[in-house]
Design goal:
CATH superfamily: P-loop containing nucleotide triphosphate hydrolases
CATH class: Alpha Beta
Radius of gyration: 17 Å
Helix content: 40-55%
Bound molecules: BIS(adenosine)-5'-pentaphosphate
C-alpha cells in the first residue's frame, strides 16, 4: 500500500498514521517529524528548516523534495509507505508522481481527513508530544497518567513551537492556500477518499482502515 494522508494541521494525521501504518505493516514517513529531527540534531538542513517551521510557512520545495526522495530510497519502503505531510502543494505532488513513475510505481490512495477549523484549534492548543518516542498526546482528549510524562516510554512531553495560537492560524491559512488544492488534484486521479476525522480516535482509525482495505491489491 502506497498511501498519502492529507488534512489540515491538527486533523489527526500523525495520530492516525501510527495506527494505519501499523495495520498495513508499512513505514509512516512524516516530513514534519523529519524536519523536527533535523532541527533537534542541529544539522544544516535543520538550521535552514527551523525558520519556516517556527512561522508556519512551508519549507522550500527543493529542500523538502530532496529529503523525501532520499527517504523513499530506504529499503523499508519496498513494500509500501504512508506519507504524512507530503506532498503539501501541487508542485510537490507532481514531483512525487514522477519519483514513483521512475521507480515503476504509483500511489494507491490518498486519504483526506476532513475536520472543521474550530476543532483543529482545540486540538492543537492541548497537544503534547513525547521527546523520547514521538507519541502524540492531548491534555484533555488523550491525557497521560502523570502530567508532562509519556505513559509509553517515560519521556518528557513538550509543546511544539508552531502550536502557538498565532502560528496555528497562519498554518491554517497556508493549508487553505497551498495544500487544499491537492484535494481536487487527487480527486481527478480517482484515488482520493475522504473520511470525517471527528469523534473517538479508534472510530476514525476503523473508518480509515475500512476504506483503505478497498485499495489493497
Ligand atoms: P507537520 O508536522 O506535518 O504539521 P501539520 O500538517 O501542521 O500537522 P500536525 O502535525 O500539526 O497535526 P496532525 O494532523 O498530525 O495532528 P495530530 O495527530 O498531531 O508540519 C510542520 C511544519 O513542517 C509545517 O508547518 C512546515 O513548515 C513543515 N513541513 C512539513 N511538511 C512539509 C512539506 N511537505 N513541504 C514544506 N514544508 C513542510 O493531532 C493533533 C492533536 O489532536 C493531538 O494532541 C492529538 O492527541 C489530538 N487528536 C487527534 N485525534 C483526535 C480525536 N479524534 N479527538 C480528539 N483529539 C484528537
Amino acid at each position: 500500500m502506497r498511501l498519502v494522508l492529507v488534512g489540515p494541521p491538527g486533523a489527526g494525521k500523525g495520530t492516525q498514521a501510527a495506527f494505519i501504518a501499523d495495520h498495513f505493516g508499512i513505514p509512516s514517513i512524516s516530513t514534519g517529524d523529519l524536519f523536527r529531527s533535523h532541527v533537534a540534531a542541529g544539522t544544516d538542513l535543520g538550521k535552514e528548516a527551523k525558520r519556516y517551521l517556527s512561522t508556519g510557512e512551508l519549507v522550500p520545495d527543493e529542500i523538502t523534495i530532496n529529503m523525501v526522495a532520499g527517504r523513499l530510497d530506504d529499503r523499508d519502503t519496498v513494500g509500501g509507505f504512508l506519507l504524512d505531510g507530503f506532498p503539501r502543494n501541487v508542485p510537490q505532488a507532481e514531483v512525487l508522481g514522477r519519483l514513483l513513475k521512475d521507480r515503476g510505481l504509483e500511489l494507491d490512495v490518498v486519504l483526506e481527513l476532513v475536520i472543521e477549523p474550530e476543532e483543529v484549534i482545540r486540538r492543537l492548543s492541548g497537544r503534547r508530544t513525547c521527546r523520547g518516542c514521538g507519541k502524540i498526546w492531548h491534555i484533555e482528549f488523550d491525557p497521560t497518567a502523570r502530567p508532562g510524562v509519556c505513559d509509553r516510554c517515560g519521556g518528557e512531553l513538550y509543546v511544539r513551537d508552531d502550536d502557538q495560537p498565532e502560528t496555528v492560524r497562519h498554518r491554517l491559512e497556508v493549508y487553505t492556500e497551498q495544500t487544499a488544492p491537492l484535494v481536487d488534484y487527487y480527486a481527478a486521479t480517482g484515488r482520493l477518499v475522504g473520511i470525517q476525522a471527528t469523534g473517538p480516535v479508534e472510530d476514525i482509525t476503523a473508518r480509515a482502515i475500512d476504506v483503505l482495505e478497498g485499495f489493497t491489491e
